[in-house]
Write a structure and sequence with these properties.
two-stranded antiparallel sheet
């Protein structure tokens, strides 16, 4: 009898950036951390994925809520969001306003996730100790057959906990806990993200990632014919990932891959949305242009805007 699954789900959630499900034939695992714009692929087999845009524009939870609405309801609610994005109320949405909105949505996700987890750990004095976290997250009976995996998860979380503890007092504040939960969003935590990625992919533990390990992480279905995107990833590895041409990816190359420097994903997404929606090509969007292309922003989905329109006046 397996005694591991319920607790494992909790543990994996707290380390969400390294807990992606194995890909199937249609699923392409992507380790690149795009500042939580979406867990979905930006492109699927060379085609742009509108679901990525929906998550980036609405937030991942809110994008799912859109599935319950008709196109008419989606457009109506989207109109309210457009009014909120138009910060200077001039009836035009600029790239800066759209980028600001996307950044707001993503920060809101991190804040809400941190608040929820903070409450779950019942932190009463404003500090969370490692022992308290460990007991609540891992203090359950687990399958002895999974003992090694279990021990590795505890070890990785303890290491990440220590890195998030910037003042080294053995406790995390809520702000430090946010860095623990979302390390890819905090500069002092990014080496942990790189290290864990290498540990996941470097199967022979030689401290570097080979082409076979790189492809095997994304496409473990060795007995099946490779889809075109896998062939493309082989070319990406040789042309862009392995920058020194030695046939492997080292720590610095992995970091450049999963946490690209000098690239603002919110800016790129704002440019993309304007490019796809700006009918008269004047560089700004009207509400009507957005509603006419509502499927790019929300598809057949819409959002629970209570937070965006009422409680979150800071936007």
């Amino acid at each position: 009898m397996k005694l591991y699954s319920a607790g494992l789900a909790i543990a994996l959630f707290t380390s969400s950036y390294c807990s992606a499900l194995p890909p199937n034939k249609e699923q392409h695992k992507d380790r690149v951390h795009e500042q939580k714009l979406s867990e979905k692929q930006h492109e699927v087999e060379g085609e742009h994925n509108n679901d990525y845009d929906h998550d980036a524009f609405l937030g991942q939870k809110e994008a799912r809520d859109f599935d319950q609405l008709t196109p008419e309801e989606s457009k109506e609610k989207l109109g309210f969001i457009v009014d909120k994005i138009d910060r200077n109320h001039d009836a035009f949405i600029t790239e800066d306003e759209l980028q600001h909105w996307i950044q707001y949505v993503q920060k809101k996700y991190i804040i809400e996730d941190t608040e929820r987890m903070w409450k779950e750990h019942e932190v009463g004095d404003g500090k969370l100790t490692w022992e308290s976290y460990r007991q609540r997250t891992y203090g359950y009976e687990h399958d002895p057959e999974e003992a090694e995996d279990f021990a590795n998860m505890v070890k990785r979380d303890e290491r990440k906990f220590a890195q998030a503890d910037e003042d080294h007092n053995g406790e995390l504040t809520k702000e430090e806990f946010a860095a623990f939960l979302h390390p890819e969003e905090h500069e002092h935590m990014k080496d942990i993200v790189v290290l864990e990625t290498m540990e996941d992919i470097d199967k022979d533990k030689d401290g570097k990632i080979s082409l076979d390990e790189y492809i095997g992480d994304m496409w473990p279905n060795k007995d099946e014919d490779e889809p075109e995107w896998v062939k493309g990833e082989r070319e990406q590895f040789s042309s862009y990932r392995d920058t020194n041409g030695d046939g492997f990816m080292d720590k610095d190359e992995v970091k450049n891959w999963i946490i690209p420097p000098n690239y603002d994903h919110s800016e790129a997404e704002a440019k993309h949305l304007i490019y796809e929606t700006d009918e008269n090509k004047d560089g700004v969007l009207t509400k009507q242009e957005i509603l006419d292309k509502y499927d790019i922003f929300v598809g057949s989905q819409a959002t629970d805007f209570g937070d965006a329109l009422t409680r979150h006046d800071e936007f």
